[in-house]
Amino acid sequence: MVTLSINNINVEVPEGTTVLEAAKKVGINIPTLCHFEGKKPLGACRVCLVEIEGGRALAASCSTPVAHGMKVFTNTKRARSARKTVVELLLSEHNGECKTCDRNNDCELQNLAYQMGIEDIRLKGEVAKPHIDKSTPALVRDNGKCIKCRRCVTVCNEVQAVGALFPQGRGFSSMISPAFMSDLETVACVQCGQCAAVCPVGAISERSHIDDVWKALDDPTKMVIVQTAPAIRAALGECFGYEPGTLVTGKMVTALKQLGFDKVFDTNFTADLTIIEEGTELLMRLKDKIVNGKKVALPQFTSCSPGWINFVEYFYPEYTENLSTCKSPQQMFGALAKTYYAEMLCKDIDEIVVVSVMPCTAKKFECQREEMNASGIQDVDYVLTTRELAKMIKQAGIDFTSLPDSKMDSPLGLSSGAADIFANTGGVMEAAIRTVYEIVTGRELPLENLHVEPLMGLDGVKTATLKIEGTQPDWSFLEGVELKVAVAHGLSNARKLFKSIENGEEYHFVEVMTCPGGCIGGGGQPRFTDDSVRQKRLAAIYAEDEGKELRKSHENPDIKRLYERYLGKPLGETSHHLLHTHYKKKEIFK
Amino acid sequence: MIKAEKIKSIEELRKIGDAVRNENLKIGNEIADIILVCAGGGCIASGSLMVKAAIQKELEEHGIQDKVLLVETGCLGPCSRGPVIVTAKDKIFYQGVSPDDAKDIVEKHLIKGEILEHLCWKDEATDKPIPVITDIDFFRRQVKIVLRNCGEINPLSIEEYIGKDGYLALAKVVTEHSPEYVINEMKKSGLRGRGGAGFPTWLKWSFAQNSKSDVKYMLCNADEGDPGAYMDRSILEGDPHSVIEGMAIGAYAIGASQGYVYVRAEYPLAVERLQIAIDRARECGILGKNIFGSNFSFDIEIRMGSGAFVCGEETALIHSIEGKRGEPRPRPPFPAEKGLWDKPSVLNNVETYANVPVILLKGGDWFAQFGTEKSKGTKVFALAGAINNSGLVEVPIGTPLGELIYDIGNGIPNDKKFKAAQIGGPSGGCVPKQHLNVPLDYESLNELGAIMGSGGLIVMDEDTCMVDVAKFFLEFVQDESCGKCVPCRVGTKRMLEILERITEKKGQEGDIELLIELGEQIRDTSLCGLGQTAPNPVLSTIRHFRHEYESHILKRHCEAGVCRGLVRAPCQSACPAGVDIPGFVSLIGERRYAEALRLHRERNPFAAVCARVCFHTCEDKCRRATLDAPVSIRALKRFMVDQEITIQLPEVRENEKNAKTKIAIIGAGPAGLSCAYFLARLGYRPHVFESELRPGGMLVQTIPAYRLPRETLAREIRMIENMGVDILTGKKLGIDFTLSDLIEDGYKAVFLAIGNEGSINLDIKGSDAKGVTTAMEFLRTYNLRGSVPVGKNVVIVGGGNAAFDAARSAIRLGAEKVSVIYRRSQDEMPAYVEEIDEALQEGITLMPLTNPEEILTENGKVVGMKCTPMKLGDFDRSGRRRPIKEDRTFVVECDQVILAVGQAIENPEIFEKIKLKMNNNENIIVDPVTQQTSIPWLFAGGDVAVVGNSDRTVIEAIAAGERAAVGIDTYITGEFNAFWREEKPNDTLFDPDADPAPYPRVKMPLLSVDRRRNNFNEVEQSYTEAEAIRQAKRCLRCDYGH
User: Fold this and answer.
1) Would the CB atoms of B485 and A46 count as touching at under 8 Å?
2) Can you give the residue range of the structural domain that contains A24?
3) Per the CB < 8 Å rule, is B487 touching A86?
4) What is the structure's pLDDT at B906?
5) A189, A252, B368, B964: which sits with the fewest CB atoms below 10 Å from its CB?
6) What is the rounded CA–CA span in Å between residue B945 and residue B922?
7) DSSP string, A490-552
8) Are residues A545 and A424 in the same domain?
9) Is the pLDDT of residue A4 over 80?
10) Which chain B residue's Cα is nearest to A147?
11) What global pTM score does this model have?
């Protein structure tokens, strides 16, 4: 342990702690822009400068390790005026108008300027050149607003291991962009939107569908139905001042109805459906291997997370066969909405507009994939992120906090707790195990609260083994088999998992979620998401699951009805047509 | 020739060394000579390889190719004189050798043994050739440790290196000593990092030695990026093995087995030679496993960088070697702990490593005898810029800057004045002339706001604008900033923008303060050394040359005549009065004399006076000088004024209100009359009060008629009177009237231009004797009364124009012998060159470097002057060498002593109770733009209120008068009405594509000495018309297109 004083307050912290962390411990908040939880300090933004007694220049608290007897002062005139100058310089470079910015009132730079009492910009000069990159369906980047804090670079390279964004050029004209200062479309961007989630200003955001959705809502000839992903309900409240992890499912449904959506459904419904299809697919692969001796691609990979799909298609194309052919719940919903549900209502599919509310920017990309038109036209029309939905609610003047609760509509609204946990890392796997185990053994999963403990939490790669005993006659070939599964979240962890697979580790089923924490930490979730926020959202989702009567996907009566009336059987022909897809290898360089 | 192969032990190494030296001896006996041809980058660029080929061909033609060895060596140093060669036998140095000289070199030098004088170095003072290299100051005054082998051996030959005891230190270290021994010797040597920061090398090594790791790295920084610095390149090109050996010794000390040299790809020759050296070292077993039979293994690879300045920063360099973007990261952890691939690493620069083998061979104590207490050894400097001997030099640390520039660098070309030296490149700062004595060591330079840096030393002369220099360096760092941290990326950009606006006539009040504030913040907040030092050039130029910034911002004037936005033509910019010189010169060229004169008088009424007495700073800045010699601007002016028959009045804007506003001008010298002239042009009718009976001030009182005929002056004064100016003579301030009287009489503003009529007395024994007078008194008495007592044997003390005016007047008034004694050298005499030349023609004796000690008297009368001869010592604050007394004296016999050592306000009490702000020179402090004093209604100008560091000249006084006129008008009306300041385009013809007119500069004709020595007739005569037109056509028309 190291003892030091910060603003004359003594503090004891472990060796290797930074001054920034030590200060936090004694309630002193040092501002920072480039700091990234858990990653090597960059020292780029210089907003966290403090004075250390005896030091020649000021020190960046994010990168300065504590030392015995160190005397740190965070509030001297020298430190304050240096930080102020740094923020002034950033403002002078920043090519944006707060009033019309997407991040107005939600901008870290704006906040800093306010906190530091900057009232005019003395250092006027050339501003960063605007270049608006709208080349991808999911994201919009504006170099003019970029303040080069490099959080996006850190998240893209170190958390996601995708490497689409880098610093380029030198001096004032340096910028953060894909290689050769080109647009995102030209590189292997998986469109996860983690860059947009960590951007402190309005330089990277999701591509807005708000106007399109308003247009559809305003069109009396359209029936507009909305599906909401499981992760929304645990995060949307944050946009209205609720603590992270506050469940607002009921208010959300009411708000959506007030916005004018004709039907409010739940992506959870198709999450349950996914478990049936994907679980069956896994069992079929196992059967093909063990009974029929066929060469099948194992482990089977989950396919709910479109960023992850992109990642495999770009970087591990030899593994596309391993991906489950199941569409994601969003796309299953879209396909059913424009077939099953449209037929039920006797509506022309052109009259139906399907809107998704997703914690994800890649979903905007996914809905536009050419494979995603089982109904004959684009199955899901628009995707709103959690942040966009909150904006629409505000635009409509709805006082969210005082809304009463409502329930999801039928018949695509009912879901089990297994579907809820799709939002969390490890959740799809747990949901699948609950169902598969019961199908194979005829018994409920013998774990406390039905949770697969080793698959929960924020560890990067999690594994579990489940021995199958006492099988039903149909599944006797699985008797005594040790089912090995693995879960990864954050694509850098996916790379680790690939490495262990390549090193000979054998798994049967692997879940990968693109974003850290799973969908609850998605690129479209309210800012700012760190591990403490992720933990709270995870807990909320598990609470939602535990509070439900239905805990297992195969018990969902509406799903059973769907098979009876429409799909026939899992992996049947209709299923195959509506609910399954295929993947392609993509070139990294275009 | 000996070829070294696998060397397995120190004994084998010694044998090869002996064999190489024996072979050299043998060559000495059997072979006529060895010619060392410099193949440094500079000499190759100027054609040394062609010279070598030509010599080779000549040798073959004469059949002596086997008797003479031609060897390509590394850089010898004097790069601007390339190609250079040295003969090994007699050590004859030839410079500027061309292939055409090959025949002479072979036939005359080698065969006949003649020295080719035209290729020799010439002594600056005597122009005599200095053939032997060791006699040349440039080489003689250097101490070569780092560059010990450069220019002496073939860099491609490991054998020659071994012949110079190369690798012996490494062999000893790895076979006989412990790593601790190495670090201890390094500690004793006191070697500090030559990359710039000067961190003790031994300490860095011992940190890395103490870091626990199985893998460590030894890194060499050869990413030399400072503009003007190329010592690292030269070492790699000239003696690559010394770097390899230094790295290997360091690697042994810290326990590293792999080294990398990070060198920029722009240094292909260095890379090539280093690679050959590494390969040869490997072949000889000096790199690789079990070096010299020891347990120590070490190898080196080259990593090429693409030339980013920031990659000289250690963490950025390490990133670049790792294949990442070359960007710094925060420290700690320091590389000694976590460096390349997070392993302990030592990074030193090329020059540091090149020192190491010598230190280990001769011992740390030997090395520590060079340099200063805190900084040991030598430092290589790259002299560049305005210096006669540009090139690479190595001197002991602590050598004074002035010695480097003047004794080794041989001073500034073209008789220009030294202004400052930029040391340490873009991270450094400038050292102005006041500090020429600064010892070149880390601490002393830091104190002045400069740094040692890599040793780039750019010399700047008076034609350099310091704001422009700061802008240049800031542009450089802004281009080279990696963009990672905010202060460096944005802050330097903002500073650059401020500098840009200052140089583009858009400077604002407060800009200097903003630059300082930003600069200090950037220094305090940036991530790495690049950003932390980026503001240095700006802060240091502000510190030493703040007045230049002020002049750019407040006066919209660039003193050096460099900044395009402020300078229409350098001559016009150099003229304190801002006369449109290209305009009037080109009008003369078109025979439009009246228009030319009218244009001149737009800014300066005293055309005819200035044609005679102006210091012509315009000519000093004339760009024609870069072709041959400046345009004869003053002589052309003389021709122009001689064409005027009746004086024409300038444009006067009548103004009833102004005519009624009473303005007083005190003093009818050039400042006062100029002020009156410009006020009159605005419709005022000012009153000029003059204490003497004749107007003209110094022009009439002290400048002799042979320089300025009285009628010439009178005509221009009459012109001013004709514009409505009243000159009231015989009215002396303090006696006939007071300042309060004027205010009581309703004067709204007063311009004080009373000059410095008093003389400074020389406080030596005998100065109160009979026969001692001052130049002022002497000249004034003669000029106003018509006669003055003159001795037969006159001694004048001083070196200014007043001294020469007195001397030449004394000759004319019958003195038989006139001697001018001056304590500094003749070059430093402030009088202008024409006047000194003419005085010499008239038989006046100059006694420079002579200090007056005592005036010897008999019966109260002067009989002689006791003097001490002086010699030049170190540099004083004015950048001149300080004269120091020799310990002997001599006596100059004389019967009159005239002191011309300075002037002062005669009687400060005249200001009565008015509390004027004065500076310690008894000079009134005024606003440099308006000439306003601390009292709003009182303005001052001329010698009584010299602004900044301007000279006390006629033209400065005229300019001050004009500024005061504008200042007074603005004070009274609140408006800016100076219509004459508006720049008008010149309608004279100019063909920008034509070649410059080929005529040489022609001096003004002078009256012959016997026709002028006994009278006061004007000495200078006018050009003929044809000559004047030719001379006018010499103008390059810098104003064109502006």
Assistant:
1) yes
2) 2-75
3) yes
4) 62
5) B368
6) 9
7) SHHHHHHHHHHHHTT---SEEEEESSTTSGGG-TTSPS---HHHHHHHHHHHHHHHHT-S--S
8) yes
9) yes
10) B486
11) 0.91
